[in-house]
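Tutorial, part two.
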Amino acid sequence: MVTKKHKTATRTLIGSPYVRNALWICLVLAALAAASALLLRIGTRHGSHRTVPDFTGVPVSVAERQARSEGLRIMVNDSLFVPLYEGGAVLDQLPKPGTEVKAGRKIYVTVNSSRQKSVKVPYVAERSLRQAKNMLESAGLEIERLEYVEDIATNYVLAQFLNGVQITAESNVEAEMGTGVTLRVGMQAGDDNAYIPKLTGLTLSRAKSRLWETGFNVGRISYDAETGRLERANARVYRQSAAPGMAAVAGSAVDLTLTLDAAKIEQSEAAAEAELRRQLEERAWRQRMADSLRMAGLDPDAEDAGADDNYDEDDFFN
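Running the prediction step on this input gives:
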């Protein structure tokens, strides 16, 4: 039972300035704690995480709209030129697709330029084909086509052309990186055969380079159905239209088919290796037979029979 005396004591205690101050301090601290929790929740956007979409291959304008709908922001921090992609397409992004981030996070992207930068076209005539090829590749260019004409200087570049216009030592011409230059190459009469290199397992750029340096043109380029357009940069050759080691006229074109399928590549490489070994063994046998006939004097034409069969096996393998 609460007595009058107790009530009086309670009123006296509550009316004490010390007690009132203590109560006010407790209320202020509680309010500060609540405000801090609210601000922390807002600042960290607790519960509002986003999964970063995959923007690669998407036009940057589309990526920006998609990012806004996800509560994210696109920031372009670099640009490159990759021929396989359309101009303005996103090539790379950071954070990577699938990463969990907070709403409002900036996604930094690298965008494909609409055009490649220009470089000076080097003068590569009056050099060997291999030297000319290397000079063009070092400049960021490539060979459009090899045109062979009869000349005593076999595999020697006689002239070069860009878009049908001859380039001379005095020319000061620029072209976009990746542009092809046509080379007119000498070939002595009767010496127009070359041997197809093994291209399976190579990237497209390496396969092209291998064909050019051995005197062949690049034919039709295709990809298997499983290789998407945006994945072609990583594809490798698994089929070539002419068998490795086979003799063909210099300047002939070789078609290439590429894939990302490692099993296809492994299988085709094994078959190409076997075919190349067979071709080389058969050629070596013909050379021995021609040498024997020539030494025995049984065939007056045998001296020339194996003239085109001087080769180094390392030239045929990757």
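Residues 302-307 have pLDDT under 50 and may be disordered. In part three we will examine how such features are distributed along the chain.
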